[in-house]
Amino acid sequence: MSWLVTGGAGYIGAHIVRALDAAGLPPVVIDDLSSGHRGFVPDGVPFVRGSILDRALVEQTLREHDVTGVIHVAGFKYAGVSVSRPLHTYAQNVEGTRIVLEAMEAAGVANLVFSSSAAVYGTPDVPLVTEDLPKRPASPYGESKLIGEWLIRDQAVATADTVAPLRHTSLRYFNVVGSGDRSVYDTSPHNLFPLVFEALIEGRTPRINGDDYDTPDGTNVRDYVHVADIAAAHAVAAQRLAAGDPVEAAYNLGSGDGLSVRQIMDAMARVTGIDFTPEIGARRPGDPDRIVATGELAARDLDWKMRYDVDEMVRTGWEARRAAAG
């Protein structure tokens, strides 16, 4: 009995594949490699190249590999770009989730862990984001993730009295960083860590977008969570679903306190040994002062904890990026 990881050749998905394998849950990967990398999938893990929009292929994969559950990670994850590409975002994230659910129902697969996002909350003006906070997504990406949660909820209601009622949970998180395997690193052109790493490798000075926020050091504060911790929580969620244990509809995978961009930059200089003073640019429109989530529910049920400090986040990410550069 295996677990299908959609988007399992991506940065987060490939770490989830490794976490499943370590937990004794055999993984299978489906990925169209639009942003993932075939080399991120470990040898011996069944790999299917294709899109989750291909209903027949998804169903065939579920049946051929005797899949007992799905961890649905695949999607278009660039919130900023989603504003200019809403139709593409909805096709990948909403229609893609609908098709995965349809294929699961047809194949009799009834366990689902959904890789959602803290973007469903928008920009809440509270010290700590909790799961019951009103959902006000501020981008098509955040909207698409929230609609995905609605689709899953409604399908669970619709199948409640069938022979294979859908059991599910959604995991919401912010900024995923670091590496749990030197062969896997963040290749996003939009995330802070790879942007800083590329600047340092190319001899450029990293930039901070605004230093006049209402925070202790003037730079905005966010949740930064290590990818290996994120992956481990997905694996525990899969184990609980497979065992029939109770789970919440959604969990925040949050740090509880957050890190500022200035703290990240200081750690970058400290860990890499490259001394630099970041340039200060203009604020980005709509950037809130602070968004940090509590992870109390996930700590209770999913063994969620922050196992890496900021220096370890930087060190593991930097080592993986340098290993990729040869």
Automatic annotation (TrEMBL):
Enzyme Commission code(s) on record: 5.1.3.2
Encoding gene (name): galE
Catalytic reactions on record: UDP-alpha-D-glucose = UDP-alpha-D-galactose
UniProt name for this protein: UDP-glucose 4-epimerase
InterPro entries, per the entry: Epimerase_deHydtase, NAD(P)-bd_dom_sf, UDP_G4E
One GO MF term: UDP-glucose 4-epimerase activity
Keyword tags: Carbohydrate metabolism, Isomerase, NAD
Main enzyme class: isomerase
This protein's pathway: Carbohydrate metabolism; galactose metabolism
Residue intervals of the NAD-dependent epimerase/dehydratase domain: 3-254
Family from the record: Belongs to the NAD(P)-dependent epimerase/dehydratase family.
